[in-house]
Specification:
single chain, mainly alpha, elongated
């Protein structure tokens, strides 16, 4: 069965709903601060305009980071889906992607497409995860871990992992 372009876009959005919602929010904020900066600079207030330009640039950078995360989750989705198709359901496949909501969303969509949604949902529930567990486990344990190179690399540059 061939998937259409719109089906591929829909799947891409469903794989990582939180990064996409954050992207939209940050894009609106970047646009708002950029327009305000332009108005303030044009009205003769360069200092405040400069501050707003910096804020606009920071939110635009956030848009790029959120989309990098979404692309990473999509790659993870494809990897988990292929593994589930090849080997069937096994908790060892889902264990590496259970530590953050974005990863669990991607894994649940992969399990849905391969017919293992119920098993995957039960597995994540047995680990104690609920709908409101959004932040990654390591960030909850230590908020400064967000700046650790290993966390950034694993979030934005997924690689092949062993399921042993």
């Amino acid at each position: 069965m061939r998937t259409t372009f719109m089906q591929m876009i829909s799947r891409y959005v469903r794989v990582a709903p939180f990064p996409h919602m954050t992207t939209i929010s940050m894009a609106f904020l970047a646009l708002f601060f950029g327009l305000e900066a332009r108005l303030l600079t044009g009205a003769g207030n360069p200092l405040l305009g400069g501050i707003f330009w910096v804020l606009s640039a920071l939110f635009a950078w956030g848009v790029l980071l959120c989309q990098a995360d979404a692309v990473s989750r999509f790659r993870e989705f494809k990897r988990v889906r292929a593994t589930l198709r090849r080997y069937g359901f096994s908790p060892r496949i889902l264990r590496p992607v259970s530590s953050s909501r974005c990863q669990r969303d991607a894994a649940l969509l992969a399990a849905t497409e391969t017919g293992f949604r119920a098993q995957a949902h039960r597995y994540f529930a047995a680990l104690g995860y609920r709908w409101y567990h959004i932040l990654p486990d390591k960030i909850v344990a230590n908020p400064l871990h967000f700046f650790h190179p290993h966390f950034l690399r694993s979030t934005f540059l997924p690689r092949r992992r062993s399921f042993d």
